[in-house]
Amino acid sequence: MITDTEVKIKGVRALTEMLGKVGAERFIALIQRESFYYTNWQRTLWEGQNVEEISRNAMKISENQAEQVGAVDQDQCGPTKK
Known about the structure:
Low-confidence stretches: none
Helix content: over 70%
Number of domains: 2
Distance between the termini: 52 Å
Order of helices and strands: HHH
Radius of gyration: 17 Å
Structural class: mainly alpha
Shape: globular
Number of strands: 0
């Protein structure tokens, strides 16, 4: 079993990886600001979707993020030599 601190660290990392720093902060602020019941939210999050649809959507998001990271990496490296 991991400690509460480890859960927090991993949670913030996951949010930052998926949403970026600004998006992660925004998500946390939204959760804190609103009356939020995580269990109810989680129960309805994937409502109407089967496992294949959820997996397909997750793979698309992952591919898009990989493309964005690749584009940023290329921009930071400067022009390529030919």
